[in-house]
Amino acid sequence: NAQSHTSQLATHAGVYIEPKIIYTMGEEVSHGTSTLDGDAGYGIGFDLGYSFNGYFALELDGTYSASDVTETDNLGVTEEGSATFYTYGVNSVFTYPVTEHFILLGKIGYGYEYEDLGNLDIKGTEGGVTWAAGIEYSFNPHVEVSLEYEGADIESTRGDNIQLGLIYKF
């Protein structure tokens, strides 16, 4: 009695939606003669995608997150502010079913980020390459949970992030 190592995802082709909760890790970046140090933060997001088969999908994504940021000028004077980040992008998604329930995940795409550092009077938009790696667990043909680590070449105090999502396949 041979057991198949294909996942429910391997049989799915069609639309899916994935709401997410996000933990941002923060990052230190240069800004003129100052240094901006982003703290860890939290947010929410979503992916809206289309699976062509069990190995490839395209998706649109969007997130909102917030954290605190400290600006230190070249004289050592610091000022704290609250930051908000809005991101959106498009990704190519590559999946590989490892067992009946577990799926490896990789993403590569392009994203834009709008940041507003509040009382620090710093606002801006930047685009760049995004990537992610993770794992999904398939409960049934329509529901999966995902855990992803996402990074980007966008210079931002938001930094890389960890995302926990619930995928619903139509």
Q: Within the largest sheet, what's the order of strands?
A: 1-4-5-6-7-8-9-10
The strand count comes to 10
Q: Treating each run of at least 4 consecutive H or I residues as one helix, how many helices?
A: 0
Sheet/helix structural class: mainly beta
Helix content: under 10%
Look at the structure and give the mean pLDDT: 91
Write the layout of secondary structure elements.
Layout lengths: L13 E11 L3 E4 L2 E5 L2 E11 L4 E17 L5 E20 L4 E15 L6 E18 L2 E10 L8 E9 L1
Antiparallel strand pairs: 1-4, 1-10, 2-3, 3-5, 4-5, 5-6, 6-7, 7-8, 8-9, 9-10
Report on this model:
The structure is a single chain. This protein has 170 residues and is mostly beta strands. Helix content is 0%, strand content 71%. It has no helices and ten strands. An eight-stranded antiparallel beta barrel has the order 1-4-5-6-7-8-9-10. The chain is elongated, with a radius of gyration of 18 Å. The two termini are 31 Å apart.
